[in-house]
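Bug #77: duplicate submission created two jobs. Keeping one. Sequence:
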Amino acid sequence: MAMAAHDAPNIKQLLRLAHDRSAIGRSSLIDAITDIVSEDDQSLTDQEQAIATDIMCKLLQDVEMSVRHHLAERLATIPVAPCELIRLLANDDIAVARPVLLRSTVLSDPELVDIIRHRTWEHQLAIANRQSLSIAVTDSIVEAKNTTVITTLLENQDAEISTATMAYLVEQSHRVDSYQGPLVLRQDLSPELAGRMHAWVSDSLRQYIVANFELDPSTLASAVDSAAQRAFAEINAPGDAVPAAKNLAQKLPEANIDPQVLVKLLREGEISLFESMLSRMTGMELKLVQRLVYPAGGEGLAVSCRAAAIPKPDFASIFLLSRQARPGDHIVEKDELKSVLGLYDALSDSDAQDILQAWRDNPAYDELINSLREHCTVAPQQ
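Kept job's structure:
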């Protein structure tokens, strides 16, 4: 029992130092607590260590934040620091908790999850920066749905993220731009998920994806189609659909808009999204696209599709389906289809581009159609 007798004054010293409000007293208190919990101190029995820990936890509730902060800095790197003491510091104000949340290996996954769920987003942010994180912890961070914290988590290459959560974050990156760069740069992002992102990320990120991921061509071919499918729920939600459709179309580069997607959109009645994507492909204002697509004869649609390098079979499907989207008569006569396909064939790529540019400069529909009929050798439909 010589050890206990030797160290009994240490506990009494803690009590005395707790009442000493001087700078020296506070510094001595931090030193005393650190000495008691350090791995080099073997002077206390387990029972005495528990008593000392209980006393220290009670003392910390009565000392100012600066003392608790300095103590947290000291204890954050001690692997044998008492769990109760570390847990108390980790749940303190963020100024106190941050060093422990960042560096202490004493905190268990369930304790970290509990802090994520019940403390502030700043506590979550500190945890997201830890050197290593398990799936249980990263799932809890994502469930908290703070975009700043999740972006930081994605930037942490030592954080383990489940396949399901990674797929969810890839889907979310369609609307949360800050996720895109960190996701693409992650070493554990699969080529399949990178291929999905290819449809809506910036040019520089697309180039990075192509250069750093072995992508199956079919993955890229279906990327825009998948993006359109994901947007359907947003477009059909209550509110103004046109801005939502235009916003999606603007995120899709012209080269990545597959004509088959336009056909699919028309088949599924997603007219706003179809118009916005065609506007994006042709560089024409949305209102002009709407004026050119639906009138009888289809000359404006033929020029637009030819200028956008849409293949003839896809143009034929778009023409027929677009008749269903226009008000009034939906019937397409055999001669009407033959005439518009003849116009499509008669136009060269350069002709279509020239006419399209003239329309961009002077969006007056009657004049546009007259200029088209003068420009082309195909007689207009009677």
